[in-house]
Amino acid sequence: MSDLALRAGHPAIKERGALASLSRLSPDRLVPWLLPLILLVLWQASASLGTLPPSILPAPFDVAKAGWRLLRSGELLANALISFERALSGLLVGGSIAFILGLSNGLSRLSERVTDSTIQMVRNIPNLALIPLVILWFGIEEGAKLFLVSFGVFFPIYINTFHGIRTVDPQLVEMARSYGFKGFELFRRVILPGALPSILVGLRYALGIMWLTLIVAETIAAQSGLGYMAMSAREFMQTDVVVLAILIYALLGKLADSTVRVIERYSLAWHPAYRKGARA
Amino acid sequence: MTALATKPRSAQTRGASVSLHGITRSFGDTPVLKGIDLDVRPGDFVAIVGQSGSGKSTLLRIIAGLDQGFEGSFTVGDTASEKASSRIMYQEPRLLPWASVIENVAFGLGPVPARDHAFSRARTALEAVGLGDRGGEWPDVLSGGQKQRVALARALVSRPDLLVLDEPLGALDALTRIGMQSLLERVWQEEGFTALLVTHDVAEALTLADRVVLIENGRIALDLDIPFARPRRRGAVQFGALEDELLTTLLKSKSQTEEYII
Ligand SMILES: Nc1ncnc2c1ncn2[C@@H]1O[C@H](COP(=O)(O)OP(=O)(O)O)[C@@H](O)[C@H]1O
Ligand SMILES: [Mg+2]
After folding, report:
1. What's the pTM value of the predicted model, to 2 decimals?
2. Distance, first Cα to last Cα, chain B
């Protein structure tokens, strides 16, 4: 659809999107980094002065050194990769099931009647409460993490897909029908684009839950991954590695969030709230 | 100018005739339309007026094929020839916000693959409503009147034989409205479709229509021919008597219903 918009070739549309967001680093863009930077300097200063003992919180410099060491040994990359793989596969499995169920319940009253109240019931179980049961089922194999992450990401994606489809403007649907659109064409041209903002909100929530679930699962039941790395470092009192793992989690979470923002900027370029200048 | 006074304004009138026979529609136990009979000649511009809630939209939705729950029958176009096509235009533009202006117009061609051919037709329709240079923009940057012009282009891009319009200018400010009225008259004269316009503005009906039909209590209460030459000047003196007659009937039916409610 967007290529058609480009073909129509109006500068207003050409200008929007990635190029604009990659523009020079303006002071405006640097401001959000100011506070973290000040905190970092304060942290380093109090560690160097000895007010902050390394057993509580190691200096940023030591954390960086630990990072460099683990990076050179390949341990860091291997663990990060495994965590990333688990997160992604859980998101794919749980997310696709949720998306399909959300679509079918949004589009069909029958499907909603059959499944929705069951889903709402299961939704009230916090996914981390399932950990003991999941360990009984899967041990600490990959299945356990896959199950927990899938279970966690399922609900935000399901609910927002369902809600998005149900709240598509009925006047637009009537208009499209009067122009002869039905079935898949109606879905592709009207219903899906109308539901997309809500679906992406669901995705963003899901990403947060995805990391949280994975961290807990890896801390409790894993023999690899970032959570495991932090946990075994604790046994050896390697505070620097523990802090490193936490920082990497924060970084990965931020990365996931930014990815969704980029997707939003592209696919919701029509939406005034996601336009260049207006940041959600 | 006097040449346009009588019928043939368009050399090739391809509009569809419309005939309604005893159209009756109730919602629950409330009858809204109680037997509407109406014959519209091909290419005519008919305005339908009536107080709010008198069933004008209901009637249009039936003619546009959006409502199946009615009794009676109607035909659009000569049943012998190929099926006549009709389009509806609403009070709201109902543009797809995620499609560019030109894509919205091409949407009016129905679920056909979006080929270059479709886009060149859409561009022609967009030029006809004076927005040829806005095709690449998102609908939400347009003003209310411009959006309604895009909706008009979308309705006309498939060259329908009948266009039904449900208060399409109702939400526009007075000046934009006058501009839209002349645009509507111009495209109607150029294209030769049959037009059924619902409006609550008696002056608008008199400016645009060959014939004004007033609906009251589910029936046609008044059916007036408007014989004046085009283009008509708004609020022309000759309108006076007709405007009076329409307004009197409208106000009478309004006070009647109000008594009823009390
Ligand atoms: N789908 C519907 N369900 C129930 N009542 C309806 C429906 N559509 C219209 N009505 C009723 O029918 C009457 C006529 O409505 P409408 O045709 O929209 O009036 P108008 O367009 O002349 O203002 C109103 O009283 C309205 O409440
Ligand atoms: Mg109405």
Report:
1. 0.82
2. 50
State in Å: Cα B92 to ligand 1 middle: 17
| A90 and A137 both lie in a single domain | yes
Q: Report the CATH fold assignment for B2-7+14-85+160-261.
A: Rossmann fold (3.40.50)
B253 in contact with ligand 1, CB cutoff 6 A: no
Q: What is the tally of structural domains in chain A? A: 2
Q: Which residue range forms the structural domain that includes residue A78? A: 55-274
Inter-chain touch B96–A185, beta carbons under 8 Å: no
Kindly give the number of the ligand 1 atom that is closest to the alpha carbon of B61. 17
Ligand positioned closest to the Cα atom of B257:
1
**A23 and A154 fall within a common domain:** no
pLDDT in tens, B73-126: 999 987 655 677 899 999 999 999 999 999 999 999 998 776 778 889 999 999
Asked if A222 contacts A145 with a C-beta cutoff of 8 angstroms, the reply is yes
**Pairing between β-strand B162-166 and β-strand B194-198 as defined by DSSP bridges:** parallel
Binary contact (B111, A181; C-beta < 8 A): yes
Integer Cα distance of A17 and A276 in angstroms: 7
Cis link prior to B93 (omega < 30° from 0)?
A: no
State whether A135 and A260 are in the same domain: yes
Cα diameter, chain A: 75
Assess whether A103 and A237 both reside in one domain: yes
Q: What is the ipTM of this complex?
A: 0.86
CA–CA distances in Å: residue A218 to residues A46, A134, A203, A221, A239: 32, 13, 22, 5, 18
Q: pLDDT tens digits for B51-73?
A: 888 999 999 999 998 899 999 99
Question: Please, which residues 58-97 of chain B have a Cβ atom closer than 8 Å to chain A?
Answer: 64-66, 87-88, 90, 92, 94, 96-97
Å from B84 to nearest chain A CA?
Answer: 14
Residue nearest to atom 17 of ligand 1 (CA): B55
Q: How far is A21 from chain B (nearest CA, A)?
A: 19
Phi, psi of B38 (to 5 degrees): -155, 135
